[in-house]
Amino acid sequence: MEFFKPGLNFDFVGKMKLVFVASMCAVAISIISLVVHGGPLYGIDFAGGTLVQVKFKNAISMSDIRDSLASINMEQSVIQRFGTVESNGYLIKSELSSSEIKGLATKIEGALAAKFGKDSFEVQRVEVVGPKVGADLQKKGLYAVVFACVGILIYIAIRFEFRYAVGAIIALAHDITIVVGIFSLLNKEFSLTIIAALLTILGYSNNDTIVVYDRIRENLKKTRRRSLAETMNTSINETLSRTVITSGVTALVVVALFFFGGAVIHDFAFALIIGIVVGTYSSIFIASPVVLAWESVWPPKQKRK
After folding, report:
1. What DSSP character marks residue 100?
2. Is 45 exposed, middle or buried (0-12, 13-18, 19+ CB in 10 A)?
3. Using an 8 Å Cβ cutoff, are 95 and 48 in contact?
4. Quick one: how far is CA 167 from the chain centroid?
5. In Å, how far from its chain's centre is CA 128?
6. pTM confidence score
């Protein structure tokens, strides 16, 4: 199946400088946002603390919930709406854990019952994570992403060449930075679920990049007299239909999860949507042009001779 007509010859490599500036701006904005916010907004998984998910039978304002928590000196807790407005669901988060204040979740439930009545709400979930456990999960999540990148670097260096591996890793770093930056800009929580999304994005984006790299290698063998830039343009154009169709179909599924999958996986689906778009973009405009830039600085031995 061809999404584009055969013989398409869009000059992707010719747009390399323009795309580089756009990508650098996006990465810079992401990094600045993370610096301004003091890093990602870590959820209970990483920051530690107590989370209570409550569903009220009737509409309740967040200010009323905060007033009820004042009786137990927890009016500074983070209160967020969970799900749709009609669901009347809320998340109450505190940096304190039950190990620090005995029966913290029970005290929160009691304060709500005193204010709204015992039968006016339902506690649907309680999560308690100690600060040491949260710090350990944060460290292991970082290790998971780093080790995945190292594994990809080694795999591509063996299957292709080291310059291709560098291009792929820079593209992946670009994708991850932008996804994390958008979460920071939108003040969304960064949790273990988002780490799972980042690892999924790494694999998805790398798969797209390898398809392009394979076609470049095939075309280099067929047309040795053509320049690398011309071969890259041809290869990207030849795989463009496959890239767009695969990304489009995957995006349809993820968008369905985003709208109909429920609040629990809402942020996970949101991260995947961003990752699919940015990953498709980077496999076309970042990974291959980096290889070309690498060759202009460090040409292969055969070319130097």
Report:
1. T
2. buried
3. yes
4. 19
5. 25
6. 0.81
pLDDT tens by residue, the chain, 305 residues: 556 666 677 888 888 888 889 999 999 999 999 999 988 888 877 877 788 889 898 888 888 888 888 888 877 778 888 877 677 888 888 776 655 556 777 888 888 888 888 888 888 888 877 777 778 888 888 898 899 889 988 988 888 888 889 899 999 999 999 999 999 999 888 888 899 999 999 988 888 889 889 988 888 888 777 788 888 888 888 888 888 888 889 999 999 999 888 777 888 999 999 999 999 999 888 888 888 888 777 666 555 44
Record the tokens describing residue 285, joined without a space: 């405009």
Distance CA 179, CA 84 (A): 24
- CA 181 from chain center: how many Å? 9
Whether the CB-CB separation of 50 and 126 falls below 8 Å is answered with yes
49-129 has which fold?
Alpha-Beta Plaits (3.30.70)
**CA–CA distances in Å: residue 291 to residues 58, 188, 219, 276:** 59, 34, 15, 22
* Token pair of 33 as six digits: 């946002």
Reduced to 3 states (helix: H, G, I; strand: E, B; else coil), residue 55 is strand
CATH number of the domain located at residue range(s) 13-40+133-304 in this protein: 1.20.1640.10
